[in-house]
């Protein structure tokens, strides 16, 4: 089938085989001149196909509906009914292949359970010429990553495949990345502690079916957040409990040529959603605290408040992530944090077995990061 079936004529369909990131890398959702600039082609409609009409699809639809250039071409879900989009109901299919027989989308959004991402991404890349946005995590195992890599040569994987690392676009993360960049006197980030809690215990088996495990679901967010601040290098240890509903991972990283450890706690045994990350800069004794649930942050040095970030409460949290994500994705230079190289590095870390102490080998070590991606 390859890329031959459809000749995309929309703005993304025409341009996607050219390198999209030839300019300077932007930084984890921070708009640079390149990502802020609206390409001339964006006056043309962008035909979108949405695959999976579950919980997160609602946010995609809300943000897509705000963008005047977007047309919702079709939706796909074998179980859920068609959603309404700007007051109309688009053609709805039970199977993506059937939809791609009838439509030539410019963008396919895959918002299905995690363990279906790989096979749907391959089918979307080979069965259309569209740009493909896959919900995080891109894939659920390393074999699936290899399957995507194997497409390179026949499909422009780097130019067409993107992963919705939405946390990297959260306002408090962008604020924190800017603080670190603008305050070199703080020194390297010497330790990080991150805790992501979701009350999915109430959703029982459904949570495992949609998201796999707490580490599968939130670990990938934590790693994409880490990549905004430091260069993650390997997993040092991993423990999971409660059939995967809670976990404790340690990830090593490099910050300004200093090595550090990030302690990553994920759990679904929680009364409500609560997500925070704390970064410590031992050389200056600065602490940077970011609250991803409230989208707030502050930096303190001993008893002094150095800087703070608040939120006006006007924008729901997920909309605050996906609005800049789509702004970047639909530009001519999507942020590298959405790109295949970053997703591959995140997956290598996320799905790798941690290296036992003192044992050489593949372990959780990853190849060098592809771009700055906001790291300092
Ligand atoms: N819920 C969130 O807050 C959130 C946030 C960010 C990312 N995500 C990611 O998005 C993905 C979906 O999460 P969700 O919460 O929307 O799950 P969900 O279970 O609510 O929705 C998934 C939908 O996909 C449908 N589906 C299953 N197989 C399909 C197929 N082959 N083709 C088309 N549709 C299919 C299901 O019927 C269901 O309606 C997961 O990978 C998750 O990690 C979720």
TrEMBL record:
Q: Where is this region: Disordered?
A: 1-45, 355-376
Residues annotated as domain Gfo/Idh/MocA-like oxidoreductase N-terminal: 46-152
Composition bias type Polar residues, residue spans? 19-29
Give an example GO molecular function: nucleotide binding
**Gene3D superfamilies this protein is in?**
Dihydrodipicolinate Reductase, domain 2 (3.30.360.10), NAD(P)-binding Rossmann-like Domain (3.40.50.720)
**Name used for this protein in its record:** Gfo/Idh/MocA family oxidoreductase
Q: Whose protein is this, by species?
A: Streptomyces palmae
